[in-house]
Amino acid sequence: MTPAERPSESVVLGVLGGIASGKSAAARFLAGSGGVVLDADAISRAVLAEPRTAAWLREAFGEGVLDPEGRPDREAIGRVVFADEGARKRLEGWIHPAVREKIRGGLDEARAAGRSPIVLDVPLLLENDADHGLAGECDFLVYIETDAEERDRRAQERRGWAEGEVARRERVQIPQVEKRKRARYVVENRAGLEELEASLREVLDAERLPH
C-alpha cells in the first residue's frame, strides 16, 4: 500500500533487525510523540515479573533460573533455553500467548485512540507470525542494518553477554538476509544515533508520516 493509497487510519509498521542492532531506538524515533511503540521485550519482562510466572519457572526449570529473591533471572533463563531447543519451546509456550494477548490489546487500544504510527518492536515478528499474525497487520517493515561484529560487541558491553552469544541465539531465527528482503526500507545504523535518525526521517517523509 503506497502513502497515496493509504486511508487516514492508524499506520502500523514493524521494525526488523538482528540482536543489538538498534531496533528499539529506531522504534521510538519512528513513533515520535504522536505514535506508540508496542515493545515485546518490555511486555515479556512484565509477564516474567508476574508471581505466577516465577512459580511456573521454578517447576519447569528449577531454582537456578530465579535470583536470590525468587524472581526470574533473565540471563539465567536465556542460558538454559538457548542451549536446549525443548526448553526454549516450553518457555515460549508459556510466555508467548500472554505477550501476544497484551500486544493485540495494545494494538486495538492505539487504533481506537487514533495513535499513528503504531510501531511493533517485536524481535520474532516474522518467526512467530503463524501464531500471532502481527506481520500481516503492518503496512510496511523497516530493517535496521548493523554489522554482526558490532552487534556482538554491543551485546557484550551492554548486556554482559559472552563473545559469540548473539550468533548462537540467532541460529534459531530467520536469517538476517531474509528479514532484510522482507523490509520496504533498509536503514543503516553504523555511525551513531544522529545518522540513524536522519535516515529514519527519510522513511517518515517517504510515507508521509509526521516527525
Molecular structure report:
With about 210 residues, this protein is an alpha/beta fold. The protein has a single domain (about 10-205), classed as 3-Layer(aba) Sandwich (Rossmann fold). It contains 10 helices and 5 strands. It has a 5-stranded parallel sheet with strand order 2-3-1-4-5, sandwiched between helices. Helix 1 (about 25-30) crosses helix 10. The longest helix is centred in the middle third of the chain and has 28 residues, at about 85-110. It is globular. The protein starts with 11 loop residues before the first strand and ends in a 5-residue tail after the last helix.
Order of helices and strands: EHEHHHHEHEHHHEH
CATH superfamily: P-loop containing nucleotide triphosphate hydrolases
Q: How much beta, percentage-wise?
A: 5-15%
Structural class: alpha/beta
Largest sheet: 5 strands, parallel
Low-confidence stretches: 1-7
- Annotation, overall tally of beta strands: 5
CATH topology tier name: Rossmann fold
